[in-house]
Amino acid sequence: MTWFRCVTGRPWAPLRLFCFPHAGGSAVFYRSWAEAVGPAVELHAVQYPGRADRIGDALIPDARRLAKLIAGALAQHADRPAVLFGHSMGALVAYETALLMQERGLPPAHLFVSGARAPQGWQDARRTISTLDDDGVVAEMVALGGSDADALTDPELRELVLPYVRNDFALVEAYEPAADAPKLDVPVTALVGDADRDVPVEQAGRWRDTTTADFALKVLPGGHFYLQQERDAVVREVLTRLQVPASGH
What we know:
The protein contains eight helices and seven strands, in the order ββαβαβαβααβαβαα. By secondary structure, it is of the alpha/beta class. Helix 2 (63-74) packs across helix 3. It has a seven-stranded mixed β-sheet, sandwiched between helices. It has a single domain, classed as 3-Layer(aba) Sandwich (Rossmann fold). 33% of the residues lie in helices and 15% in strands.
């Protein structure tokens, strides 16, 4: 099973944008972005195992192992520059993937991290959600405000969804940055909602310390899932940072 879902193939586009979903999320979260990014970008959404059309694949509760598999799959797309965008847990996995890509001599052209604390501050607000009972996990999902919370009100869907939601929270809770992790030599842009209860703006700003290249911080209105309401503003920021014309957007 392939790792990426591409709604609209654009073989002429000068770059590819790989989007990493949040905990409990799947590739469908970025479906509407394919049109929004315009003709100069070919968008691929990462499909983690154990959900959606990969429901039968084994779950992976370790961020570095997940990143290693994704980096391996990305190596097959090295004919065009790759840009990584990750939201929440996806930002963490995208960061670890970027480190591996750099180590292998194929660094991404840019890393966008959204709604996430920087690695060195990841555990500052450690909360254990993965071991809560079903209702507790559902309550946390609802509080975060993600679209996936709707599925958890349906008993049959809940049975399918909860295993990978728990897996993802366990991955987030277990993560510790490598003490000897090198800095990226890749431009990094951090995006965050001004009312995100889990990621204060100053914590998002600490991503500055992960790179020796350019860094930018963009604050948009909204909570943890600000990018649902602010999708167009997020896409504009991505295109601006990449110096890609927004024609067709």
